[in-house]
Amino acid sequence: MGLIIRSSAIHAAGCYTTSPIRKGARVAEYDGPRISKDEADELYKDAPITYLFGLGDGSMVIDGHSMAMFINHSCQPNCETEELDGRVWITAIRDIPGGAEITYDYCLYDGGEEECLCNCGAPNCRGTMYSKEEIRRRKAQARTAAAKMPAKNTSRRGAR
Question: Is 94 contained in some domain?
Fold first, then answer.
């Protein structure tokens, strides 16, 4: 199996397979230096794009420096990620034909106020790279904040 990087309709550059990949096969390892989340936040505070992958409880991240950093998000992915002994593997969740773009669901969380819009084009696209759980958490948080806001006074006094 070979991988190449080329232009992607999803986002800038993408990672593509040059030959078919069977379901269950490891496609790539997400590799790079391991740094604390706090270090990454400081290092990339003004960067519009990062290639960080959270490990375990999220206190450590991989600062992507490998072919896998070019694998784009999709709401209908052909791969998934798996962390084993501090290493992150991208594994095919279905058979992938040669020439196809490799994708996985980023399931983002802890992104501050950023929107992280999705451009995958899948029929079931969520419109965001945030996980379903994070979307639910943010909606609940917004409902709670809205409930705490004082009601607007819409009565018209003195208008005649």
Answer: yes
Verdict on whether the full-model pTM lies above 0.85: no
- Please indicate, yes or no, if residue 89 is contained in any of the structural domains: yes
End-to-end CA distance of the chain: 79
Strand order in 34-36's β-sheet?
Answer: 34-36, 60-63, 52-55
Structure tokens at 91: 């594994």
Q: Which amino acid is at 4?
A: I
Angle, CA 144 vertex, CA 141 and CA 147 arms, to 5°:
150
pLDDT digits (tens, 9 = 90+) for 8-23: 999 999 999 999 999 9
Tens digit of each residue's pLDDT (9 = 90 or more) over 81-94: 999 998 999 999 99
H or E stretch at 136: helix 132-148
Find the CATH number of the domain harbouring 15: 2.170.270.10
Q: Does 137 reside within a domain?
A: no
Burial environment of residue 12 by CB neighbours within 10 A (0 to 12, 13 to 18, 19 or more): exposed
**145 falls within a domain:** no
